[in-house]
Amino acid sequence: MTGSGGATRQDPGRGRPGARRGARRTERSAVVRRPPGAAGLLVAVLFYMASFTPSLIPRSWWIQSLAAGVTAAAGYGAGAFVGWAARRCGLRPGATALRWARLVLVPLGVAGVVVVTARSVHWQADVRRAVGMEPGIVWWQWLLVPFAALLLCALLVGVARSVRLGTRALAHVMGLVVPRPWAVAGAVALATVVVVGVLQGFLLRGLLNLAESSASLTNGSTSEGIVRPSLSTLSGSPASLESWSSLGRNGRDFVGQAPTRAEIAAFTGGAAANPIRVYVGLEASSTLRGRAELAVRELERTGAFRREVLVVFGTTGSGWVNESLAKPLEYMYGGDSALVSLQYSFLPSWISFLTESEAAEAGAALFDAVHAHWAALPAGSRPKLLVSGESLGSYATEGAFDGRLAAMTARSQGALLVGPTLRNPMWERLGEDRDPGTPLWLPVHEQGRTVRFARRADDLERPPTAWTTPRVLYLQNGSDPVSWWSPGLLTSRPGWLVGPKAPDVSPGMRWYPLVTFWQVTCDLAVADSVPDGYGHRFGTLPVAAWAAVAGPPGWTRSDTVRLEAVLARE
Question: What is this structure's pTM?
Answer without folding.
Answer: 0.86
